[in-house]
Write a structure and sequence with these properties.
The complex is a heterodimer of chains A (325) and B (428). Chain A is α/β, with parallel strands linked by helices and 325 residues long. Chain A is built from 12 helices and 9 strands. In chain B, α1 links the parallel β6 and β7. Classes of the chains: A alpha/beta (325), B alpha/beta (428).
Chain lengths: 325, 428
């Protein structure tokens, strides 16, 4: 493992499988009556959020607290940042308070990379989403969800996603989730297809390790998992597509389309969902939809990442099953 | 002013000759000239060029003296071998009146490191809506002949047409910053493979090319000449080549950084590589070099754009666009054009002195190195190779993309009308 987690592309296959396996251990902790490990006791982690994201922030916070870390939440709104303080000064200020790791969410692509590589601070940096660049823990929790559902929690240990056919649908252009998933799923051996109207695919996508299609119906039948990406209604005003209705008709997932997917195939969504836009309520609330599971898995994955970055070589969970007997 | 004998210099890279400066002019060029009464500069092995002329410099004064002033900027120019710089109009206040251009012009004269020729804004406040008083700026003491809204594109086709037409009355030229504004909303880097991966807003080549295509057609239609600032794409080269083949009066410049650097560098997210127009691809770089060699692109211009440290020591999105360039331009041109065999030193003199002086009508600059001409000269140690060390820059700003990079060539002497502004690499 590297010192920081900035991009899903930085992970080797073995790194990624180690994180997924560790997360599996962490998930077992969540099933205990007391969901807490002493692993990061005495370590301080700051959640440095320059963008509003309640769910990601809470997920990291839950992960940090379950590992017994001391947690500081820093939201840029109403802080010195809104008065013009720079990212560098903010980070240095926090580090001066003895922070061991910085979990950063930032609207500017590359901000976590700069934080980790500019010599501003020494703390480990975890990217919790930067601009339209990367969101590596999201990709990890998605891969974790796929492995659990398509292979199995126990059978999956040590396994990657070799040969699994994953389809991502929606606003790829503005999506850090799509970029992270393409990188990680490729590393894990999955076959990825991106489906979107041409306006929502970036110029330069031809070098990505995935297939690209403009047609959802033809890819659904050969998908083991279909991940719907959020499409913001405002995109309509910038002429990315004519109307919300037309988008839904061509690229939305409804019950009819879901019925055409293979029986074992799952529906995923990174949230927050725009019901009626990219996904209908019927699909969102069906058993095949893993949205809620993804949220739970997010905590396990973030525990695994923080543990592996900060916890050193000691086992995260000391013989949990025997200990509890 | 005393006599100076430059001994054994390779004039324009040719055979070694002696050049005698007397007062402000070149008195004699030949071999074995008498050193009597003259200060001797041993120039064996060095190349003597006419003083360089930069058609595109940001001196930042008035308004952003924290990044550069006329004094620091012209010292940087002298350091880089320049004897004339054209100062862009995007200052605070904007150089859109006779008053502002005269101020900049006077400051240049007072400091005396190189001639400062102000560029006037095309439109009031660079807003692209209303023509600035172009005639008044031309008639001012500054004698403005080049007009540009650089930093912003004169995007309105009617305003551009009128500007092109209007300046014909006094032989002016409009220098266009070609950037279609709608296509570049939120643009942060070249749109392509790298931007797709990095998730940075794309600046598509077509946003530059479509404006250049429109403007050469406009220039043709109204019979004006147009100059294209910092041309950066292979497609732009094709359009200018086509326009020239049709006899359209278009000239174009390329920056040193677009001759050397590519958008691959943006992978570091280091804003020192953030510049407008953005760094392009390897294919573009090669097309630009070829176009500069074959004359499709007429000149090298630095687009020297100083910024204070804090405007670059931050995340990419928050950073200012631009790079300093006056003190490294000749080295980059030697690396990309001379060392590659694309241009000889006479060609460098043409692209960095003769042609820019002609386009900007900088009288007395870009002249042949021969008797009777003004002694605006630059002496270059072309055998030198060394690391770029921004700490030694004369510019107030350090935002160079070449820090720690090894580049060839070093300007050792610069003379402005016979007065040394740089001696043995040190400013006078």
């Amino acid at each position: 493992m590297q010192r920081h987690l900035i991009s899903a592309a930085d992970l080797t296959r073995d790194d990624a499988v180690l994180i997924l396996d560790t997360a599996e251990e962490m998930a077992r902790v969540a099933d205990r009556p007391i969901k807490k490990l002493p692993t990061l006791r005495g370590r301080t982690i700051v959640n440095l959020f320059f963008e509003d994201s309640t769910r990601t922030r809470i997920s990291f916070e839950a992960a940090e607290k379950r590992l017994s870390a001391d947690v500081i939440n820093f939201s840029a709104k109403g802080s010195s940042v809104s008065k013009g303080e720079s990212l560098k000064d903010t980070a240095q200020t926090l580090e001066a308070m003895g922070v061991d790791a910085v979990v950063i969410r930032h609207g500017a692509s590359g901000a976590p990379y700069r934080l980790a590589n500019s010599g501003w601070i020494d703390a480990a940096v975890v990217n919790a989403g930067d601009g339209t660049h990367q969101h590596p823990t999201q990709a990890l929790l998605d891969a974790f969800t796929m492995r659990r559902r398509l292979i199995g929690p126990d059978a999956g240990l040590g396994q990657d996603l070799e040969g699994k056919r994953i389809t991502l649908v929606g606003d790829v252009l503005h999506s850090r989730v799509a970029r992270s998933n393409v990188d990680l799923l490729h590393t894990l051996g999955a076959e990825v297809t991106l489906v979107a109207p041409p306006t929502l695919l970036p110029v330069g996508i031809e070098t990505w390790p995935c297939e690209v299609s403009y047609d959802l119906d033809s890819t659904l039948t050969k998908s083991d998992a279909v991940m719907m990406l959020r499409v913001q209604r405002e995109r309509m005003n910038a002429a990315f597509f004519p109307t919300e209705r037309e988008y839904s008709r061509r690229y939305g997932l409804d019950g009819d389309r879901m019925a055409r997917m293979p029986e074992h195939a799952i529906v995923m969504h990174p949230g927050p969902m725009v019901r009626g836009m990219e996904i209908t309520a019927e699909v969102a609330d069906s058993d095949r939809c893993t949205v809620v599971e993804q949220v739970a898995n997010g905590v396990s994955i973030r525990m695994a990442v923080l543990y592996l970055l900060l916890g050193g070589n000691e086992p995260a969970v000391t013989h949990p099953r025997t200990e509890e007997k | 002013m005393s006599k100076i004998l430059i001994r054994g210099a390779k004039v324009l890279g040719g055979e070694p000759q002696d050049v005698l400066i007397d007062g402000g002019t070149i008195a004699q060029v030949g071999s074995g000239l008498s050193a009597e009464g003259a200060e001797v500069v041993e120039a064996e092995g060095k190349v003597l060029l006419p003083g360089l002329v930069d058609l595109h410099t940001h001196l930042r004064e008035p308004g952003r003296e924290d990044s550069e002033t006329v004094l620091t900027g012209t010292r940087a120019a002298a350091s880089g071998g320049y004897t004339t710089v054209f100062a862009m109009a995007n200052t605070f206040p904007v150089a859109d009146t006779a008053g502002v251009v005269e101020q900049v012009w006077r400051l240049g004269k007072e400091h005396g490191y190189c001639d400062v020729q102000p560029i006037g804004a095309v439109t009031v406040g660079l807003e692209g809506k209303k023509l600035a008083e172009l005639g008044a700026m031309h008639e001012s003491a500054a004698g403005v002949t080049v007009f540009s809204d650089d930093g912003k594109c004169v995007h309105d086709a009617v305003i551009m047409r009128r500007a092109l037409e209007y300046v014909k009355a006094f032989g002016g030229v409009v220098a266009q910053h070609a950037q279609e504004p709608r296509l570049t909303e939120g643009a942060e880097m070249n749109e392509g493979i790298v931007s797709a991966e990095l998730g940075l807003g794309g600046w598509p080549a077509v946003a530059e090319e479509s404006i250049i295509a429109r403007d050469v057609l406009l220039a043709d239609h109204v019979g004006s000449r147009v100059h294209i600032c910092h041309l950066s794409t292979a497609g732009s080269v094709e359009i200018v080549r086509w326009a020239k083949s049709r006899g359209i009066a278009v000239t174009a410049e390329v920056t040193p950084h677009h001759l050397l650097l590519t958008d691959e560098l943006v992978r570091t997210y280091n804003p020192v590589y953030k510049v407008n127009p953005p760094l392009r691809t390897e294919r573009d770089v090669m097309a630009l070099r070829e176009a500069l060699a074959d004359g499709t692109i007429d000149i090298v211009a630095t687009d020297h754009a100083p910024h204070p440290h804090e405007d670059k020591d931050c995340e990419w999105a928050a950073a200012a666009m631009g790079m300093v360039g006056l003190e490294t331009a000749l080295s980059v041109v030697q690396e990309t054009m001379v060392a590659t065999g694309l241009l000889d030193w006479a060609g460098v003199a043409d692209r960095m002195s003769v042609k820019p002086a002609q386009i900007g009508q900088a009288t007395g600059h870009g002249r042949p190195v021969s008797a009777g001409e003004p002694a605006n000269l630059t002496l270059v140690d072309t055998a030198y190779r060394g690391l770029v060390e921004p700490a030694g820059f004369a510019s107030r700003s350090r935002n160079t993309p070449y820090e720690g990079r090894e580049l060839p060539g070093r300007v050792t002497h610069t003379w402005l009308r016979g007065k040394a502004t740089l001696v043995d690499g040190k400013l006078t």
